[in-house]
Amino acid sequence: xxxxxxxxxxxxxxxxxxxxxxxxxxxxxxxxxxxxxxxxxxxxxxxxxxxxxxxxxxxxxxxxxxxxxxxxxxxxxxxxxxxxxxxxxxxxxxxxxxxxxxxxxxxxxxxxxxxxxxxxxxxxxxxxxxxxxxxxxxxxxxxxxxxxxxxxxxxxxxxxxxxxxxxxxxxxxxxxxxxxxxxxxxxxxxxxxxxxxxxxxxxxxxxxxxxxxxxxxxxxxxxxxxxxxxxxxxxxxxxxxxxxxxxxxxxxxxxxxxxxxxxxxxxxxxxxxxxxxxxxxxxxxxxxxxxxxxxxxxxxxxxxxxxxxxxxxxxxxxxxxxxxxxxxxxxxxxxxxxxxxxxxxxxxxxxxxxxxxxxxxxxxxxxxxxxxxxxxxxxxxxxxxxxxxxxxxxxxxxxxxxxxxxxxxxxxxxxxxxxxxxxxxxxxxxxxxxxxxxxxxxxxxxxxxxxxxxxxxxxxxxxxxxxxxxxxxxxxxxxxxxxxxxxxxxxxxxxxxxxxxxxxxxxxxxxxxxxxxxxxxxxxxxxxxxxxxxxxxxxxxxxxxxxxxxxx
Length: 552
What we know:
The protein is of the alpha/beta class.
């Protein structure tokens, strides 16, 4: 495609460029014998069935409990009552033991009572009343039993070993995207980040983290802390040393990376710890949605709980992007409240005024509760909170994983994406060394990196001088009906593309690998033609020519 035409897309998010690619790929698929393949989105094509079965079965019991209180002919029920509700659920499940979800639901209550010391009636009533959704969320930040179960789940999903001391305060939110918006807003409101301040981003990184700081709402300066493929997507010492600059107020990380799909190593985490000893006032924000795809995962939240705001979304692991389930975690002993307390008196008085309608002592308001209030512009704080049916689903997902002591569900999910990675590598005709920190959810294919390795510097330099980097993704769409995202939109290398291994059937990924190889071969042939050379075949040998994909 013409370089001048492609330049118009340079300022767009890859998620917006994707729409143009999708149109081109769809047109190609309609006009030829290939299947349209969109590997640009991270939405998984699997779901966790058993917690959902329990959810819908619990709903049936809850309706019965409602009718037990009131059952008027037009279809008017009452509000479920607590006394004896646990025994009634056990009896009801015994009568419906053959229904999907009954086994898990029957095991859930005694497990929770034993593990957390819950009162059985109070726990079951929270589940039943919440799944009906007949009350405002109380407490507004998060249901009592839900917070305890999710706290334990996050210790496994994010914190790793050794388990951090103390407790985290949690806020259930509408997915990871809502968490990001709420955190940015509250950090600005509480003057933890002000217009003109500098933050650091661990790049490559999920595009919204690149875009939000530059909005007029925040107007932040950004320093990139760059991980590279040559360093297996870890940070070199020189990059981390940038964090020693006292002008940098916060360091934002997606771990494992998106799009790199590699978790921070123990060595890297230790280096960040050394930085914090010199910069104890450095705020960390970590988004760990893919951590469950790396066995033994360790988050910055687990390593440095006092300095870290944690973000987790259930969307990818449980296949529930439509449920909008996420959580913000802040340790009870945290840096943020100390920084707020150090503000000059005029600023503290402004914050006193902001929060005075919801508390008699605004200066004692916890940071996590400030996030809740700010998420609803303070005035609507009394109606804050994630919807109660969503919180029930969060309980069921969390408990399902915690009760799975053999981690069969985790193994199954990792097995799905790992198989697709292997198929893509087969199509590409390359091998990569195993990496225990790789989550298999995404792949970042850097054409320049591999071209330099397999076909030489001359071809790479010609390609960079004569072809626009976005031509790579448009060529895949226009010639092969395939949509991938341009890595440059994530601050990844210009000639890289992100492949999602989550959202397509297993058998198509080798086709994607072959298509990428075909585009690379086309560039090499164009280089040879420009030099008057005859093509000598594959840039990477040992694999057959790509074949047209028939529609399936």
